[in-house]
Design a protein that fits this description.
The protein is α/β, with parallel strands linked by helices and about 260 residues long. It has twelve helices and eight strands. It has one domain: Phosphoenolpyruvate-binding domains (TIM Barrel, Alpha-Beta Barrel), CATH 3.20.20. About 45% of the residues lie in helices and about 15% in strands. The structure holds 5,10-methenyl-6,7,8-trihydrofolic acid, 3-methyl-2-oxobutanoic acid (KIV) and magnesium ion. Homodecamer; pentamer of dimers.
């Protein structure tokens, strides 16, 4: 039980030390990411797209996340590991409790991540009351891509930005210990990070978030097709996977990533 604690992550926010997060899906990457100084691993449901070749994250199952989380856990000794709760695995609080318990007990995750705002507040209360650490996820919600009509920047209008800020506060009050903010204007990322006491990890949410996360294959230039504007190919700059990851960590810690072109 010597993995990085939530208390340590909260202290990093207070000390304004940026938190470097990457996705991981297997033991070999988990080991490499720990060696390179990453703080948190996210077993993202992005695995549906980058591992399984699906068109969205919607088809990912709880069993898929458990399998990959268990592999990631075996590859690292110290890193804090968050597992995504898949589409509809938290449709009501009872289902959420049952599935989150599996991600922790069978997968070994330290925290679970759920997409959404007001609609999941009761669920977050019930999970955290039972000792399950929760990471929220606001902004672009990939599990809602069929309603959103694409992977489009969120929170551009004042009303949407205000709703997002209110949701972020509600999640913190419901007991969430971390928040991922995806694809929102950098100004909104800055406001949310400042307003909350819990660490806010951005992906396409600007350089003022408390930390940054990317899909590991995106930052190695492996993802086929057009990569999101907020990502960067660190392997092209460096030449080895280990040095690319180390360069990402250094760039997040120094505030050099994301730069003006890598945010909205
Ligand atoms: N490989 C991969 N990387 C990711 O970051 C990722 C996944 N998969 N799968 C799940 C979601 C989907 N994500 C995405 C995918 C594409 C864009 C994208 O292309 N966004 C446009 C912005 C469009 C606009 O201006 O509104 C961009 O140019 O970056 C954003 C997030 C983030 N997540
Ligand atoms: C992109 C991150 C935040 C994620 O949710 C995932 O990898 O599934
Ligand atoms: Mg996800």
């Amino acid at each position: 039980m010597s993995r990085i604690s939530l208390k340590h992550l909260r202290q990093m926010k207070v000390a304004q030390e940026k938190i470097a997060v990457l996705t991981a899906y297997d033991a070999s990457f988990s080991y490499a990411l720990e060696q390179a100084g990453v703080d948190i691993l996210l077993v993202g449901d992005s695995l549906g797209m980058v591992i399984q070749g699906q068109e969205s994250t919607v088809p990912v199952s709880v069993d898929d996340i458990i399998y990959h989380t268990a592999n990631v856990i075996r590859g690292s000794d110290k890193l804090f590991v968050i597992a995504d709760m898949p589409f509809m695995s938290y449709a009501n609080p009872d289902q959420a409790i049952k599935n989150a318990a599996r991600l922790m007990a069978e997968g070994g995750a330290q925290m679970v991540k759920l997409e959404g705002g007001a609609v999941i507040i009761e669920t977050v209360k019930q999970l955290t009351a039972r000792g399950i650490p929760v990471c929220g996820h606001l902004g672009l919600l990939p599990q809602s891509v069929h309603r959103l009509g694409g992977y489009i920047v969120q929170g551009r209008e004042t009303a949407a930005a205000e709703e997002l800020i209110a949701d972020a506060i509600s999640l913190q009050e419901a007991g969430a210990d971390m928040l991922v903010l995806e694809c929102v204007p950098a100004t909104l990322g800055a406001v949310v990070s400042k307003q909350l006491d819990i660490p806010v990890i951005g992906i396409g949410a600007g350089s003022d978030c408390d930390g940054q996360v990317l899909v590991v294959y995106d930052m190695l230039g492996l993802t086929p097709g057009k990569r999101p504007r907020f990502s960067h190919d660190f392997l092209a700059d460096t030449g080895s996977i280990q040095s690319a990851i180390a360069s990402y960590v250094k760039s997040v810690k120094s505030g050099a990533f994301p730069n003006a072109e890598q945010q909205f």
